[in-house]
Design a protein that fits this description.
This protein is an alpha/beta fold and about 425 residues long. The chain folds into two domains: about 220 residues, Enolpyruvate transferase domain (UDP-n-acetylglucosamine1-carboxyvinyl-transferase, Chain, Alpha-beta prism); about 180 residues, UDP-n-acetylglucosamine1-carboxyvinyl-transferase, Chain, CATH 3.65.10. Helices cover about 30% and strands about 25% of the residues. The strands form five sheets. A four-stranded mixed sheet has the order 18-19-1-20. Strands 2-11-13-12 form a four-stranded mixed sheet. The protein has a four-stranded mixed sheet with strand order 3-4-6-5, with helices on one face. A hairpin with an 8-residue loop joins strand 5 and strand 6. Helix 1 packs parallel to helix 3, helix 1 crosses helix 6 and helix 7 packs parallel to helix 9. The longest helix has 13 residues. It is globular. The N and C termini lie close together (about 5 Å). The model has no long low-confidence stretch (mean pLDDT about 95). Bound molecules: shikimate-3-phosphate (S3P) and phosphoenolpyruvate. The site of shikimate-3-phosphate has 12 residues, from helix 5.
Length: about 425
Amino acid sequence: MQYEITAPAVLNHTVDLPSSKSVSNRALIIHALSGGGMLPQNLSDCDDTDVMIKALRDMPEVIDIKAAGTAMRFLTAYLAVTPGRHTITGIERMRHRPIRLLVDALRYLGAEVEYAGEEGYPPLRITGRPLDGGRIEIPGNVSSQYISALLMIGPVLRDGLRLHLTGDIISRPYIDMTLWIMGEFGAEAEWTDISTITVAPKPYAARGYNIENDWSAASYWYEMVALGGRDSEVTLTGLMDGSKQGDSSVSYIFSLLGVKTTFGTTEEGVPTTVRLSRNGHCVPRLEYDFINSPDLAQTFVVCCAALGVPFRFTGLQTLRIKETDRIEALKREMGKLGYVLRDVEGRELVWSGERCEPLPDAAVDTYDDHRMALAFAPLAMKWGRVRINNPHVVTKSYPHFWNDLKSSGFAIDIHE
Ligand SMILES: O=C(O)C1=C[C@@H](OP(=O)(O)O)[C@@H](O)[C@H](O)C1
Ligand SMILES: C=C(OP(=O)(O)O)C(=O)O
């Protein structure tokens, strides 16, 4: 299926963003480890959270987490400390997303985890039991999700956990967000030196928890405002100033590309809305390190090229093991649209301003990656129209994205 998206002349709308899947999936694991009570509020309705809710509610013998990296990694640790035998699996791509470092760490703690297919990759067979915990090492440069997974089981380990991270630390704000949410549920977990996190063996306290909306999803609306006319304005709901989500850095980066962020306040004085408008300034060239916010890379690659802003983006080394190889996907699709990107050893993407002949009537392929559809659709604001193949991929994190576009005045023609 293909969507042909036509943009409105002026964008001026209020958008109710989806809830954060990263926060939702952490709150669900911690809620389960705290012994239940009231479910977290404002859970995301996306696929990645849906699989987590169902797994924790039903605990079937075979748990299929589809394409959700967080669910695969967080549930692996959860199942290792929860009595019962389960196989955890996912879609074909998930069978190629590495998990060895997490499995090694759990085995070191005494967990029973076996590979049901290829060594180093899902599916896994896990027999859960109480574990002692103690001190372990894990490289910090592959996926922060392994670290978050281990941290979240820390409070239920008999001796707690001292986690020593070796090498560079990537996606660090996600680790800090894990520690923050654990703290909200009464855990004592903190950095005790530059590369060590200590978690006390103190049980979680059951409590209600309200989940913030998704700053990564906000990035696509920032992009639309950046690419739209001078009068473009969007209000986004459910976002906090001082958010613990690392992707809230989107507001700073877009200030360099002409978008102003104004936080609004509800009657109760709680800041929950963000108004995006044009600030009239745009840098002539952008250099940025995405090591802390890998999920924003696609947004800025597409947006900068469309604005004619040459860029050098570093810290992209984890993009190859996400929903697709995002480095290759970006190079190929941007090439179809007439932009020649170069990668440097799979860690950087550079656009010097070089153009090539665009394919006539090019349609953007999405590679089973929600962020390909989400990041390329805003191009309609610049060109009037854009075509996206397999548009349903957005359900991984933002199921009502196309409806939100329609409510904002976009037209969507469906081609089978
Ligand atoms: O912990 C999380 O919620 C996430 C961590 C990041 O993954 P890596 O740590 O693998 O970079 C990010 O890309 C992913 O979308 C969500
Ligand atoms: C990488 C992502 O998700 P995950 O790793 O949780 O599948 C993402 O949402 O961009």
